[in-house]
Design a protein that fits this description.
This protein has about 220 residues and is mainly α. The protein has helices spanning about 5-20, 20-40, 40-45, 50-65, 70-75, 80-100, 105-120, 125-130, 135-145, 150-155, 180-195, 205-219, and strands at about 135, 160-165, 170-175. It has one domain (about 5-219). Strands 1-3-2 form a three-stranded antiparallel beta sheet.
Length: about 220
């Protein structure tokens, strides 16, 4: 399968989101296949990841989150470079987290959403860049379980230290963040327990999380 152009990927996404019930299942599989082809080579995803990508698309569709413009826009450019592919992966993880908060999906689906969110975060690699003292917006988003857009808001508000790269992307000083992701892993485990017990699994707001990060940095 040849990789589609950004315009064609946008059309495929819209066609999938607006398709009727009779063709929707096949469109979702086509979309999942293109995700694997376009973003996969940047994220080290191969054919053995087929089921995880299909399941991701199906859960986001069932939750109503597949129609999000930020996902479509990130998908359009996901094969351009590693940073953009990681932005897409971080967005998938964040929206799967959101799907896990939708009670009508049922316990099994919500737990699967949390598991898949962890899988996608695992594809956002930060080891090499952190050694050089910087993290991308996608890497920070994956670490704290928010969208890259939330990280951009933190940058605009001056809550975190960042600078532009020669290519126009943002990079954030790694020393202002925790060296690993214990908070996110603990939050995911807690969410899973709450879902299993039939309770709420609501995440903290972006504003609350940003305030927490700033407080930790200043302590």
């Amino acid at each position: 399968m040849s990789i589609l152009s950004p315009t064609d990927r946008a059309v495929l996404w819209r066609m999938t989101v607006t398709s009727g019930s009779e063709e929707r299942a096949s469109r979702l599989k086509i979309l999942a296949s293109e995700i694997l082809e376009s973003a996969g080579r940047r994220l080290d995803l191969y054919s053995d990841h087929d089921d995880e990508v299909i399941e991701t698309v199906e859960i986001l569709d069932a939750s109503g989150l597949l129609g999000r413009d930020d996902l479509r826009e990130a998908f359009e450019d996901a094969d351009e470079d590693d940073d953009r592919a990681q932005v897409f992966a971080a967005l998938l993880a964040s929206h799967l987290d959101a799907a896990a908060e939708i009670e009508r999906l049922g316990v099994d689906v919500r737990l699967r959403a949390l598991r898949l969110a962890g899988v996608w975060r695992g594809h956002v690699r930060d080891r090499a860049s952190e050694k050089h003292g910087w993290l991308s917006a996608a890497q920070v988003a994956a670490r704290y379980g928010v969208t890259p857009q939330a990280v951009y808001k933190w940058i605009e508000a001056g809550r975190v230290r960042a600078e532009r790269t020669p290519g126009g992307s943002w990079r954030l000083a790694a020393d202002q963040f925790e060296p690993r992701r214990p908070r996110q892993h603990a939050a995911t485990a807690l969410k899973a327990k709450l879902v299993e017990r039939g309770g709420s699994a609501t995440s903290p707001s972006d504003e609350k999380l940003a305030a927490e990060i700033v407080a930790r940095r200043r302590s």
